[in-house]
Write a structure and sequence with these properties.
single chain; alpha/beta; six-stranded mixed sheet; five-stranded mixed sheet; 18 helices; 18 strands; 13% strand; elongated; DNA damage
Length: 505
């Protein structure tokens, strides 16, 4: 609970704090206040003497008041002196903290009878009518509405106060803003900007009062400016140029824009001077062509899309010579399909045909194929009983002088060629698939993240087939030292030995 006192001495038995017996006339009282603190002192004295709300007229109602003004509240007697009897002071009034905060907030609301309503709410609370805080009560509903209106005005000032920077030689304050609040919220808003702006000097001017911050002290005075036209801002032209450059007429939604920023704020916003013209231009045709120039200047970027998603539905090619699922066919001599037993128990999948395979039209006939033949023979496997193919059917290369050097296929090319590999797997129905290198492993598993390092070592099942992963023969040809070449070759031999064992079970 919060004591409903205003910092003055407690009232005495003879008549309270400034309210004599002669002033408590049956005809009532007229009380003039200009701030919440003054109203609080006057209301406390009236409550202590049991003065009902209908006996008090709050002088100055309808004039709004200035919460920044100073001076003591002065109860003004009505009626003839000597007509009043001495009122017995009641107990010291107390209010809950929540109600006290609501009263202080509602006091900022510019309505004609704000002081009278606040006193009526306090009087009813002291009489035990605690429902006065409920929105279901008429007075409680008005009080809640006033609190909501003030809170909304504080929010709007936080959002729509626009500081303009003064010239460097103009001195303090550095930033100046003009705002026209509907309620007396300048003190609350000043505290917010004091915390936010730090040591930077600023001033917020309104039609009724002005608040200034010099970096250390907050000063309040009467009105100093007549409107935003009195503020010079050398950088405003730059801001308006920037604002116009980011405006997108194609996405203009005028009703939504007006609902987000009430019309009363537009006249004091810097961009308010150019928005009507931009809205009119959008309605006159800029909405259709506003982005044409900017979009045309963009270079764009490549977005990787699976071949089956990028192309329209069409009849699939029946032979490799007809395949146009990726761009590799343009620079290749021919497509190189698989070769071997049509129902082999072991299928060998490499990466792609090389230079000699591209010319011959057969898989693994070059140097890598010769090393593969030696490994197969050492593992006691008959090559004639194998089915040998590649994950990618066309040779991908780059020129190096007069030579065509191998270039690793991209994932989109592996995905595009999976159509042919999938057909081979379905036709041959192997029990074991030996993948030579990382590209072949990714193609068989249909997993772009699969790595040879994780798959080598132990065979594993995939779609009811055993997968045995090992090095590509070209790797054994590329490693620089003899020991590494022997280790790579032996790993290939071991892979085919395990494939033979799994195929025979």
């Amino acid at each position: 609970m919060t004591a409903f006192t205003g910092g003055a001495d407690a009232p005495d038995a003879a008549g309270g704090n400034g309210l004599s017996a002669s002033q408590s006339a049956a005809a009532g009282f007229a009380v003039c206040v200009a701030s919440f603190a003054e109203w609080r002192d006057a209301a406390r004295d009236l409550l202590l003497h049991g003065v009902a709300p209908h006996e008090v007229q709050w002088a100055g109602e309808g004039q709004g008041g200035d919460l920044l003004s100073t001076g003591a509240a002065a109860p003004i007697p009505r009626g003839k002196p000597g007509d009043a009897a001495t009122l017995a002071p009641s107990t010291q009034p107390h209010l809950p903290r929540t109600l006290m905060e609501m009263l202080q907030t509602a006091a900022c609301c510019r309505v004609p009878d704000r002081w009278g309503l606040l006193y009526r709410v306090v009087w009813r609370w002291q009489q035990g009518e605690h429902d006065v805080m409920s929105p279901a009560d008429p007075d409680g509903a008005r009080l809640a509405g006033m609190v909501k209106a003030v809170s909304r005005e504080i929010h709007d000032m936080h959002a729509y106060v626009r500081f303009r920077e003064r010239p460097a030689d103009a001195g303090a304050p550095r930033f100046v803003a003009w705002f026209e609040p509907q309620h007396d919220v300048l003190p609350q808003v000043a505290g917010h900007f004091k915390r936010r702006m730090g040591g930077t000097s600023w001033m917020i001017a309104t039609p009724d009062a002005t608040v200034m911050w010099d970096g250390a002290t907050l000063h309040t005075t009467g009105p100093l400016l007549r409107g935003p036209a009195d503020i010079e801002d050398a950088g405003e032209a730059l801001w308006l140029t920037y604002y116009q450059s980011i405006f997108n007429p194609a996405r203009l939604n005028a009703p939504l824009m007006q609902s987000h920023i009430p019309s009363r704020f537009w006249k004091n916003l810097p961009e308010g001077a150019v928005v009507p013209h931009m809205v009119s231009a959008a309605a006159a045709g800029a909405r259709k062509v506003g982005q044409m120039e900017a979009v045309g200047q963009r270079k764009g970027r490549v977005i990787p899309v699976a071949a089956e998603d990028a192309q329209p539905e069409r009849q699939q090619p029946s032979t490799l010579d007809e395949c146009r699922r990726c761009e590799l066919w343009k620079n290749a001599t021919q497509g190189v399909g698989g070769q071997g037993a049509r129902h082999a128990k072991i299928m060998v999948v490499g990466e792609q045909p090389g230079d000699q395979e591209d010319i011959a039209g057969l898989p693994f006939v070059g140097p890598a194929g010769q090393l593969l033949d030696r490994a197969i023979a050492q593992a006691s496997v008959d090559r004639a009983k194998l089915y040998i193919t590649n994950a990618v059917k066309h040779f991908k290369w780059e020129p190096r002088g007069k030579r065509r050097l191998h270039k690793t296929p991209a994932q989109r090319e592996i995905d595009a060629c999976h159509y042919w590999l999938e057909g081979e797997l379905a036709s041959v129905k192997p029990k074991v698939v030996v993948t030579l290198g990382g590209t072949a492993l990714k193609a068989v598993l249909e997993d772009p993240k699969a790595t040879l390092k994780d798959a080598m070592g132990e065979p594993f099942l995939h779609q009811d087939r055993w997968i045995v992963a090992t090095y590509h023969p070209s790797y054994a040809l590329r490693v620089p030292d003899h020991e590494s070449r022997e280790a790579a070759f032996n790993a290939i031999v071991v892979a085919f030995e395990r494939a033979r064992q799994l195929a025979g079970k």
